[in-house]
TrEMBL record:
Coiled-coil spans in chain: 128-159
GO molecular function: RNA binding
UniProt keyword Coiled coil present: yes
InterPro entries: ANTAR, CheY-like_superfamily, WH-like_DNA-bd_sf
UniProt cross-references to PROSITE patterns, sorted A to Z: ANTAR
Keywords: Coiled coil
Name of the protein this chain belongs to: Response regulator NasT
Record has Signal as a keyword: no
Entry-linked Gene3D superfamilies: Winged helix-like DNA-binding domain superfamily/Winged helix DNA-binding domain
Record domain ANTAR: where: 115-176
Length: 186
């Protein structure tokens, strides 16, 4: 779940928006009245959603967007007084606020964050050639010394990887080290 920062010049309005979001299951970590406060929160967080008005006490939404890390998304609440251009990281919502529209926008933004997280995790879990070679060598050792089929050797590695909490590569490396220490058990 993404962390949300609400930034409205009138603190009471910001608190009302926070309470609405919290009641609907969102994680709101702060209510701010200035851009500097938002940037302080952003320094601590990896990513998040900023829900703000076009104009804060110390800066306009565009200045704030320029200072925020790329991993933050903005939902700008607009009255039409200031033109707001939607971009890849900026969405808009017209005032007066309709509760359902706000909740739908925030849910949509959270879904994007979740998709990006899964995409990043998928990239991290891809093995490089060296790791694939270690796994293949461990399977070959198991097949030779324990007389397993390739599928059995792979399941063996997966099982012990899950039980130990190590990656498949780490488990394969441990098995290779153990097999080198002992003579063949035929």
């Amino acid at each position: 779940m993404s962390r949300i920062i609400v930034a409205i010049p009138k603190r009471e309005t910001g608190i009302q928006i926070r309470n609405l979001l919290v009641r609907n299951g969102f994680d709101v970590i702060g209510v701010c009245t200035s851009g500097v406060q938002i940037l302080n929160y952003a320094d601590v967080l990896e990513e998040g959603i900023v829900i703000c008005s076009c104009q804060l006490k110390d800066m306009m939404y565009g200045e704030l967007r320029a200072d925020l890390p790329q991993s933050f998304e903005m939902l700008v609440l607009t009255t039409g007084r200031y033109p707001v251009e939607e971009t890849a990281h900026i969405r808009t919502l017209s005032l007066p606020l309709k509760v359902q529209e706000l909740l739908e926008q925030v849910r949509a933004m959270e879904e994007i964050f979740e998709w990006q997280r899964r995409k990043r995790r998928g990239r991290k879990s891809e093995r490089n050639e060296r790791q694939n070679q270690i796994i293949s060598r461990a399977k070959a050792q198991l097949m030779e010394k324990k007389e397993m089929s390739e599928a059995e050797a792979h399941r063996y590695l997966q099982k012990y990887s899950m039980e130990s909490g190590n990656s498949l590569t780490e488990t394969a490396q441990m098995i290779l080290e153990m097999m080198e220490e002992r003579p063949s058990e035929k």
